[in-house]
Design brief:
Oligomer: heterodimer
Helix content of chain B: over 70%
Strand content of chain A: under 5%
Number of helices of chain A: 5
Number of domains of chain A: 1
Distance between the termini of chain A: 66 Å
Number of strands of chain A: 0
Largest sheet of chain B: 2 strands, antiparallel
Radius of gyration of chain B: 20 Å
Chain lengths: 115, 190
């Protein structure tokens, strides 16, 4: 009887974790930049004015476009550095999740309004 | 039976892209967990792995479609400023909500959070799809990478849930409406 190939057991990794770590860290940075820009645009008139990329959508267009650009550029830059390396994944993961949690908090209006 | 163009776009955004993304999220979490956890009960065939890759790419497409239609098609109608002296604010949802203390919170808390937190979903799920495509079954051997991927997949689900909940409540309290009327069918009189 032919059984399908299964990968259920742990083996030495075939790939280094650098590329995955770069993707996770840059996603954390991307959402954090979005949250910081959202707060900055809400509190600082010059930032607000500078981030209106598309008038009908208002400042949201600039906040999200800028954050996406930072996310993608950061991702490519870190990936190029780490692609073939093994990095301290627990540290990268902790940083990424800290940024993610801070981003959820910073975008929550009662907290964003404290600044 | 008829619907306005703006209502149709709101349905496409919320029920077409957003709700489908939310439905898909639970499946993605279960499959990611099942295919990348080293236990005798788990494991995957190449076909199952390929299916999950296509599934995650589809989710990323849905998430981007949801935020882009939300920000660039519907949000401009939502936040449009009424001409001076306008009494009927039904075509200006943001102003309609802010005109009453009973509904202002749906904008000042709901929309203000939703319009930003929603973007966490496409960013997170794009990363999740990339990592799964790159590592596939090898994620079984990267415990911390696997945990981070699952965490971000869950975060994207939560972000989409927040956006979906407030989107539904906003549209219930101040629906985006107006624009050309599309006749869907001609009903007979009873």
């Amino acid at each position: 009887m032919n059984l399908p190939a299964r990968a259920s057991q742990s083996h030495p990794p075939a790939l280094t974790n650098g590329s995955g770590a770069a993707a996770i860290l840059s996603a954390g940075i991307g959402v954090f930049v979005l949250a910081v820009l959202a707060v900055a645009a809400d509190q600082l008139a010059p930032v607000n004015a500078a981030l209106v990329f598309y008038k009908p959508t208002g400042v949201l267009s600039g906040v999200t476009t800028a954050a996406i650009l930072v996310w993608l550029i950061t991702w490519v830059a870190i990936d190029l550095q780490w692609r073939k390396k093994t990095v301290a994944m627990s540290l990268m993961s902790s940083v990424a999740f800290t940024l993610l949690i801070l981003s959820f908090l910073l975008t929550f209006p009662p907290i964003a309004d404290l600044f | 039976m008829e619907i306005t163009l703006r209502s149709l776009w709101t349905m496409i955004h919320g029920m077409g892209f957003g709700a489908l993304y939310l439905l898909a999220s639970s499946g993605a979490l279960v499959e990611l967990w099942r295919l990348t956890t080293p236990s005798p009960a788990s494991g995957s065939t190449p076909g199952q792995e390929r299916f999950l890759k296509i599934y995650l790419i589809s989710m990323a497409v849905l998430a981007w479609a949801a935020v882009l239609t939300g920000a660039y098609v519907i949000y401009p109608w939502y936040r449009a400023a009424p001409p001076p002296g306008t009494v009927d604010l039904s075509l200006f949802p943001q102003r309609l909500l802010l005109s009453s203390p009973a509904t202002a919170g749906w904008h000042s808390l709901g929309m203000e959070w939703k319009e930003h937190v929603a973007w966490f979903a496409p960013i997170s799920i794009t990363m999740v799809a990339f990592v799964f495509i790159r590592y596939g079954r090898d994620l079984v051997n990267h415990k911390q990478l696997r945990a981070a991927v699952l965490g971000f997949a869950a975060a994207s689900f939560i972000a989409a849930g927040v956006a979906g909940f407030f989107g539904a409540m906003l549209n219930k309290n101040a629906p985006v409406q107006g624009g050309p009327v599309i006749q869907l069918s001609r009903g007979g009189e009873k």
